[in-house]
Amino acid sequence: MLHTSNGVTHLFHCVLHTSHRYISLNYNPSLTKEIRNKMQIVAFVP
Known about the structure:
Layout: H1 2-27, H2 32-38
């Protein structure tokens, strides 16, 4: 049960980190090109 809780916590932190980066990308349009160049494989967001 503890292992499951750690997994859920890790997933939650990953979601928060991704959401934070997505929001930062939206609020910093000048960095859009640079971030997309670094994350071409993961840049499937509209």
